[in-house]
Amino acid sequence: MGAFKAEIRYPLEPDLDNAQRRKQYMSKIFLFLFYLLLFFTIQNSVFADTKLVLLLDWFINPDHGPIIIADKKGYFKNNNLSVEIIPPANPADPPKMVAAGKADIAISYQPDLHLQVHQGLPVVRIGTLIATPLNCLLVLEDGPIKTIADLRNSKIGYSIPGIQEALVYGLLKNANINKNEVELINVNWSLSPSLMSGQVDAVIGAFRNFELNQMTIEGIKGKCFYPEEEGVPPYDELIFIVNNKMINNKILNNFLFAIEKATQFIVNHPEESWKIFSNTSKELNTKLNKMAWYDTIPRLALRPSALDTKRYIRFEKFLLSQGLIKNILPIKLMAIELPYEFYEE
What we know:
Elements: H1 18-47, E1 50-55, H2 65-72, H3 75-78, E2 81-86, H4 93-99, E3 105-108, H5 110-118, E4 123-130, E5 135-140, E6 155-158, H6 163-174, E7 183-186, H7 191-196, E8 202-207, H8 211-217, E9 222-225, E10 238-243, H9 251-268, H10 270-278, H11 287-296, H12 309-321
Parallel strand pairs: 1-2, 1-3, 6-7, 6-8
Antiparallel strand pairs: 3-10, 4-10, 5-8, 5-9
Helix pairs in contact: 2-9, 2-10, 9-10
């Protein structure tokens, strides 16, 4: 008998007619396009800019230079940030809006922060914008007030109850003047006008980089007494605050890094940075703002993230001595230095 030869056949894909082939081909194309679209969607979600809402303390001015430069120079963009910069309708609103979760970051004042935390507002300082006091006691250069001791029996104008009164009383105490030996008058925001008109002998709350220049432009010379030289502890004038729940958000480090780069650019290139700032809008390109720009630069925080804890402790003790707070709170409740995280440049 001849040898039996077995042929093993493996199952093959059945023959398809042209219609079936086209249908299968289109299904593969559709599946490919679907996964391609999914890939780019995931990529965009990973690398899309994170939007932050930043509330200013006042209308845009040279105090906000690093913020505007960070925006115009692309430092926010380079750190995957899209920052919406909003001037407040009311200067008292930003801390409240951050506490309520209606904004991500707000600019506030260290002296105000102490009172806000003692009042239970859930906010904390994460960075510094202006690292020295700007506030000063402003008088007329050729007026009767030559020294702090001359404030006895004078009229002093102020805008904000509480903190500004405490600053005045700190100055008076340093000159051995009793509270009842001066008259405090609320002049609202009409500081330099009330001084120049003779309504008051001095005003507290005037910013040394603005009101002094404003008076010079109007042909009237003013003189500043600096609180930090007259018995009041030095403090950070402008700070960045967030809601307590946000302190673990890594993107905050990127925000502060962009602010630091912008500050360095301003310090290194004061004239170029002024041109960028002043060209942002016609309202900013004024003689007063230009004078204030150069006066503000030495007061910018070169290390926005850094925290001087002792400075906050001293100011807590000062407020306690003025009767504005009842006890000393742990500083970590009101000011922190963010832990280092990788900065995405």
